[in-house]
Here is the input.
Amino acid sequence: MADRYFTPATFRFLKELKENNNRPWFQENKGRYEKDLKEPALRFIEDFDEKLRKISPHFHAGRRSFFRIYRDTRFSKDKSPYKTHAGIQFRHAACGSDVHAPGFYLHIEPGRSFVGCGIWRPDSKSLLKIREAIAEDPAKWKRAKNAKRFRETFDLEGDSLKTHPRGFDPGHPMIEDLRRKDFIGVMTVGQKTITGPDFLGEFTAMCRAAVPFQKWLCEAVGVAW
Here is the structure.
């Protein structure tokens, strides 16, 4: 039987953290955080690394793939000290610690878990490169976003501008895509899938399905696939 990583205890911890998002409760339950969330996540990351390198040698899996549970509240009205979800991102090696870069993503949250791929909120330079690539070769972009396995697995999501981006023809046939601020594919996954006996294999298959989309994005922003 394949190894299990996350369990119902993972989701119970996150659910109770949401109901008790304060330091005293977290300190009292920190052992649960380590045992039921952090340690399984780090094992999952370590085991996925070899599989990820077969998808692309330029994406890395390591301890830094696991996002800290502590929230940065300095500029937020919400002063809750902890995130009530777990985030794991496998980023492109050329992008260092930049979370706004090509990557694969796993989001674990009771009732809201999903797998993601692509670029969320690319910086202005990367965003311009992506838009220019769409405008210059719409057919190539359409082949990437409409690739059979990708579209069977992911939905294109994210925010868009209300009007056309500066410097682009508002009548361009790809204007809806040119207005995008995010270029991400998202697939909702249930708790039973994440806690199942072969989630590592299923997650790997989802990442493989994203290859046409990811390759196009890497080429557009100028990093190796």
About this structure: The chain has one domain: 8-67+80-221.
